[in-house]
Amino acid sequence: MSQARDHIAALLARLPQEGELSPDQQATLASIREKIETTADIQQELKNLFKVKNFSEFALSLMWVVERSENNASSPEEETTVLTLFRNAVADSATQVGAQAAEGEFFGAPPSSDLAVEIPVLDELPQGMEAEQQVEPEPPQEHQDVEGVSEPAVEGTSMPVEDHIKKFGLMLETFSTAVQSGADDRTSLLEQIVNENNVVGATAGFPEEYKQYCRYLTDFLQYIFANQFLDDVRVMNIVTNIQDPFATWAAAPSEAREGVLGPGIEILRDFKTMFE
Length: 276
Fold this sequence. Notes:
It is a single chain. The chain is an all-alpha fold. Helices cover 58% and strands 2% of the residues. The chain has helices at 2-14, 23-38, 42-50, 56-70, 77-91, 94-102, 161-181, 186-202, 208-226, 233-251, 262-269, and strands at 142-144, 150-152. It has a two-stranded antiparallel ribbon with strand order 1-2. Helix 10 (233-251) packs antiparallel against helix 11. The longest helix is centred in the middle third of the chain and has 21 residues, at 161-181.
């Protein structure tokens, strides 16, 4: 794990600063890099960063980089992706987060808890996943993995489809753990997943079975939020039973995935019968 920590620290150190980031943004990035360089548990630090308001996508991108580093699949696109998501993260909160960092509280900041029950389907990728507005959109890029097999990228981002699926799997696993433990950030994580589901539904390039899973998952999450069922033991059971099939599906080769999400989709489609 020290290799992954060193890789992340080196990546953050390479991010452009002069002329690219404001003084507040530079201070925030330096605080994050210092934490990464000195931590004994990179995964836990990134989970803490995930809970900071506006920084969840940035934290997930670093988790993605860690996983690729462990699999010896690092690539130059990581730097561009991480920098874009960092810019987005600090765009609206540089002053607030910079102050927290200066006080040594950056990784302990509370997550956002605001959530509207009616969450609209997005017409474009959310903060942290879209191309910068001043740049003309480019056709989806292809990712070349270590074995030379090209993999399509998610429309509107250079992140490959498979890496995006793994990122969503980490998000779902984190939410499942939070529900089981009764963690305070459950609502914030629920909001993140619903927003990500909307992205999947509105973006070309994802498998249809994945899109169907996300549609039913959104219905389920909005229902339990509206009815204040997050502490209900039935919800805990459902979340566990839908997370396991997704983890199995995401880990399987693409040609062996057909039908693997079926049990999870069936549970999500019929979940209301457990509350009647």
